[in-house]
């Protein structure tokens, strides 16, 4: 197969607003190293990390909710998820699906021609459980907002599915993040899980994966989105921020407490969702789109024997398991919209506006 020397790619040149992203039509096609494979991208999903990294929201100097605009107060020493400076220029995009078209010397040549999903977490494969030696695809290396990408051979997973590339591109970041959260919280049969921000990619994944584990699920989302969420198997759908959450829970499921809160929202509603955790309950968090700085009464934490877990870097077993869930039909995609790569800025603005349910995807 003859491969081109250049490609179309959307490239992030610095932290800032949408102008930090530039479309290039003559970007070099990457050349895989010995342990890497080259992938022709079929689709790549959007996620909060793309926006947060672009604007520098991860910096501790920023205390506001996530935003598509740049922040004047970004500290250039800690603007990425890992707390380190980012190398520019950078092609973002973590949720890449495509076909392997070339392999390095140490990669299996049988991968050529296979449709694959990419595990977003970059690891030191001599020490794969070490969270301090991890990176993120589209952050610490170039990602999938392009026609081609390369990645370590151990990060690619062939997938057998009738789903389109765009549908498969809804899974990688959102569902692996959700599964990591549920695992950290030890969710199982008999649990009652409250999902905040349930209409987004991670939220809708939390519903499906918690139900897969046998839990009862209560989802918080804008009522305007409830009809679109009806097929996600939640046991109850409540407004995004009920004025009296305990009363709303009692009316919906016959009890006013839950055993687990799975939160990607944070912000001003934090106190209310913590207040409905039962004694011995668990709170797990992997985002704070409504604001990262929240009030916490430590008496609530220790007098009610609560457990709080943060969840970012997943264990290496999660992604292969997710591919199996997909192949067995145990989870389903929630594709909100598809945009051509050339309209990435429009797609990202739609993502930021949060009027959608599920995931937004770009296709080159």
UniProtKB/TrEMBL annotation:
Domain Enoyl reductase (ER): 16-362
InterPro entries for the chain: ADH-like_C, ADH-like_N, ER, GroES-like_sf, NAD(P)-bd_dom_sf, Quin_OxRdtase/zeta-crystal_CS
Coiled coil regions, renumbered to chain: none
Keyword match Oxidoreductase: yes
CDD domains: MDR9
Superkingdom per UniProt: Bacteria
Keyword vocabulary terms for this entry: NADP, Oxidoreductase
PANTHER family given in the database record: QUINONE OXIDOREDUCTASE PIG3 (PTHR48106:SF18), QUINONE OXIDOREDUCTASE PIG3-RELATED (PTHR48106)
Protein name, as recorded: Alcohol dehydrogenase family protein
